[in-house]
């Protein structure tokens, strides 16, 4: 018997790895833990090598296990895609997609993207999680992720979706109490609200651009947080000024609830990316979602490389 003759054994192995334990995989597959243990032993006997290291506290892949996992995932994805083509017309996508996004971006732009995709393909179900640790989510078995910010890692493919424009904004009530000249130099002594993570644009200094001119000013934030939505709420209340993304404050700027200050200047745009595992063969529905997301975000974000 060949190692790859029994897809059940491959599914068992992949489920154990992605679930993190035999007991979690047993619940996921609706099988008993002893049954999964027997199937794993049978697979390791066929391989002639241990695939997992197991002790009382944790479980990890051996070197052989890492290699075998990528092959098993690719073969299962191919089998699933072939079965789907037999059952459905290519335009009729179905099945589940596990994805994640950075928190604020996911709760707004990405949620609208997902809704549009499901409306176009009602047979698809999507599970969305939020995390600012993208590689952790990929390791836990997510199919795809959408990030606001940078990520460079050879374990994932990162496809650019565009750039997130960012402006310095304040509330009208704040501007009544603080006289601001139209230059960046006038902003340094004001109360700032800032992001905590440099990966997503946070910093203890702010660099602004206007054409070829650049100005960096140190800031001492009165409030530091992980999310831009909480920053926006504090700016609305008049607590201070902040750099915020265009997609989040566009309606506030139109309504006058927020105002761009030093409007000739802007913060460096952040890249938006869609990422997916480099070694995993993607199901047809996931590849279709990636293409859909790339087109959809062109209506939300500026193309990468645009100068502002």
Description:
The chain folds into 2 domains: 7-87, Arc Repressor Mutant, subunit A (Orthogonal Bundle), CATH 1.10.10.10; 98-308, D-Maltodextrin-Binding Protein, domain 2 (3-Layer(aba) Sandwich), CATH 3.40.190.290. Helix 1 packs across helix 4. The chain is built from 10 helices and 13 strands. The chain is an alpha+beta fold and 308 residues long. The longest helix is centred in the first third of the chain and has 25 residues, at 63-87. Strand 1 (52-54) and strand 2 form a beta hairpin. The strands form 3 sheets. Strands 3, 4, 5, 6, 8, 9, 11, 12 and 13 form a 9-stranded mixed beta sheet that branches. A two-stranded antiparallel sheet has the order 1-2. It has a two-stranded parallel ribbon with strand order 7-10. The chain has helices spanning 7-19, 22-29, 33-47, 63-87, 103-120, 134-139, 172-177, 228-236, 246-255, 284-297, and strands at 52-54, 59-61, 95-101, 124-130, 144-148, 156-170, 192-195, 205-210, 213-218, 221-225, 242-245, 259-260, 266-277. It starts with 6 loop residues before the first helix and ends in an 11-residue tail after the last helix. Belongs to the LysR transcriptional regulatory family. Residues 5-62 form the HTH lysR-type domain. Keywords: DNA-binding, Transcription, Transcription regulation. This is LysR family transcriptional regulator.
């Amino acid at each position: 018997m060949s190692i790859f003759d029994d897809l059940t054994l491959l599914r068992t192995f992949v489920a154990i790895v992605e679930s993190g334990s035999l007991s979690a995989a047993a619940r996921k597959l609706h099988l008993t833990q002893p049954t999964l243990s027997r199937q794993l032993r049978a697979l390791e006997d066929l391989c002639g090598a241990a695939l997992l290291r197991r002790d009382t506290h944790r479980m990890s892949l051996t070197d052989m296990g890492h290699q075998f996992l990528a092959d098993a995932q690719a073969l299962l994805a191919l089998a699933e895609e072939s079965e789907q083509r037999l059952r459905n017309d290519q335009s009729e996508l179905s099945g589940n997609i596990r994805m994640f996004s950075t928190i604020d971006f996911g709760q707004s732009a990405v949620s609208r993207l997902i809704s549009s995709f499901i409306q176009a393909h009602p047979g698809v179900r999507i599970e969305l999680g939020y995390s600012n640790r993208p590689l952790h989510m990929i390791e836990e078995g997510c199919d795809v992720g959408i990030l606001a910010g940078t990520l460079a890692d050879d374990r994932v493919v990162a496809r650019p979706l565009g750039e997130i424009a960012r402006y310095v904004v304040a509330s009208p009530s704040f501007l009544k109490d603080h006289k601001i000249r139209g230059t960046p130099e006038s902003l340094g002594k004001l109360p700032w609200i800032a992001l905590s993570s440099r990966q997503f644009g946070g910093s203890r200094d702010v660099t602004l651009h206007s054409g070829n001119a650049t100005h960096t000013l140190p800031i001492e934030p009165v409030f530091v947080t992980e999310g831009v939505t909480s920053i926006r709420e504090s700016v609305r209340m008049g607590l201070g000024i902040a750099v915020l993304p265009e997609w989040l404050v566009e309606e506030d700027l139109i309504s006058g609830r927020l105002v761009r200050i030093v409007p000739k200047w802007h913060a460096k745009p952040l890249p938006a990316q869609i990422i997916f595992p480099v070694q995993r063969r993607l199901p047809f529905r996931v590849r279709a979602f990636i293409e859909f997301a790339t087109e959809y975000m062109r209506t939300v974000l500026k193309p990468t490389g645009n100068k502002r």
